[in-house]
Design brief:
mainly alpha; 84 residues; 68% helix
Length: 84
């Protein structure tokens, strides 16, 4: 991910995905879906994760949303401070 780029599901760092998913196998499934469909709609992502037998999807997506929101808010703040 480039400096100054906002984060999305597709740009989450691997270590963060594994931590949030609490399993490298779940993280592999999540990442393989996003590699195949980087702009996948949230509803379709949930369907694909469910089809792959991933449980606790609501918690995983909420934790990812929270992490992305914090990252993007920090980025926005830093850009504002720098006057960019």
């Amino acid at each position: 991910m480039a400096i100054g780029q906002t984060m999305s599901f597709a740009t989450l760092p691997r270590d963060r995905v594994v931590t949030i998913c609490q399993s490298s196998n779940k993280a592999d499934v999540f990442e393989s879906i996003l590699k195949e469909h980087p702009q996948i709609a949230r509803e379709r992502l949930i369907e694909r994760l469910t089809d792959q037998g991933i449980d606790d999807i609501d918690r995983i997506l909420k934790d990812m949303d929270d992490y992305i929101e914090l990252h993007n808010a920090g980025l926005s703040s830093a850009i504002g401070i720098l006057g960019l």
